[in-house]
Each structure stands twice: as C-alpha cells, then as structure tokens.
Design brief:
Protein name: Lipoprotein
Radius of gyration: 17 Å
Number of strands: 7
Strand order of the largest sheet: 2-3-6-7
Number of helices: 4
Keywords: Signal
Distance between the termini: 25 Å
Strand content: 15-25%
Shape: globular
C-alpha cells in the first residue's frame, strides 16, 4: 500500500467514528437500549448487579459519544488539536493512533461532511471486576458523506477497500474505582458490511 493510500485509509478509520456524534444522535431510533433504561427511573425488579451493569454501560456510551464528537471536531479542524483526544485513549489505542494524528496535523489534512450512524449496540459487557468493567460497542457507519482533503484543498480518494457502509467496533474499559472510562480499541471492520 502506498503512503498516500495508507494515510487516506487511516484518515477514514480515525475520522469516521468521530463524525458520528454530529449526526442524528437526537433520533429516538438511534438511542440504545442502555441509554433508554439509564434515563428511565430504576425498575424495582432489577437486581443491584443488573442496575450497576446498566449504569456502567450508560457511562461507557456517554464517554464514547464525547470521544466521537471530539474526534469529529479534530478531523474537521485539520488535526492540529489532536492531543485533546489523548485523555480518552487507553495505552493500546494511543500507541496505534497518536503518530498518525501527528502526521495528519503536519500534513494539514482535514475532513468535511459527516458519517452517518446507522446503528449502534452494546455487543459485550464484562463486569466481573468492579471498577474495571469492559464494554464493547459495535456501530454500523455510512461514510458516503465524508470527504478528506490535503491542506491545499485537493480531495483525496477514499481507499477502494473501504466500504461505504461498514462496522466499527469499540472496546472501552474503566480504569478503576476512582478512575474513568478509556477507549482501548477502535477497529474499523471494512470487511464487514452492515
């Protein structure tokens, strides 16, 4: 893969998820079951464990929405303020994306348009260790409205292997009883159409 193609592929991966927060999240159909349950009054039939699980999932989804929104702003602004994302990154994600964000900033790449969140659901939850819960969110994204540009305004082609609509999987983990949620992985599954 050429350097230009690798950069465009990475730009799609990094920016498409961030564009989600700016697109249609006010629509009731896009609200996850966990968000609906968290905003409702606690049901007396829920056990303490079930109630805690719902709370943790709602917290993780809220942090993911903040992160995606900030990702979108960073991409639209030319990646210059990419360091604002660092507090959201777990070590694994930071190792894999910080260099790319730095390079995008230096090159002056930026995006326009938005990716559409087609669907989103919690696909895994591990609450075995209280305070160190893990949540996996699988989202279906439509990137037909997303465009990527060089600093001089030259539009870059999206890679041929990037589907217009595909799956992105996020893994979040809580860092401890006094900690916070971090995004450990954001994996574009361009081999899986949704």
């Amino acid at each position: 893969m050429t350097t230009a193609r690798r950069l465009v592929a990475a730009a799609v991966t990094l920016t498409v998820a961030g564009a989600l927060a700016a697109c249609g999240t006010d629509e009731p159909a896009l609200t996850s079951l966990a968000e609906q349950q968290a905003s409702a009054s606690p049901s007396p039939s829920l056990t303490e464990e079930e109630s805690t699980k719902q709370e943790r999932i709602a917290e993780a989804e809220a942090v993911l929405a903040e992160y995606r929104g900030l990702e979108f702003e960073v991409a639209q602004g030319g990646y210059g303020n990419w360091a604002l994302l660092a507090p959201y990154w777990g070590a694994e994600l930071a190792d894999s994306v910080a260099g790319t964000y730095r390079e995008f900033s230096e090159r002056g790449l930026y995006t326009t348009g938005e990716a559409e969140l087609v669907s989103s659901e919690v696909t895994a939850y591990d609450g075995e260790r209280v305070g160190y819960e893990d949540v996996e969110v699988t989202a279906c994204l439509n990137t037909s409205g997303l465009r990527i540009f060089e600093e001089d305004g030259t539009e870059l082609d999206l890679p041929n292997d990037t589907l217009e609509q595909y799956v992105n999987v996020y893994r979040l983990s809580h860092t401890g009883p006094d900690g916070r949620w971090q995004v450990l992985e954001s994996t574009a599954r361009t081999d899986r159409e949704c």
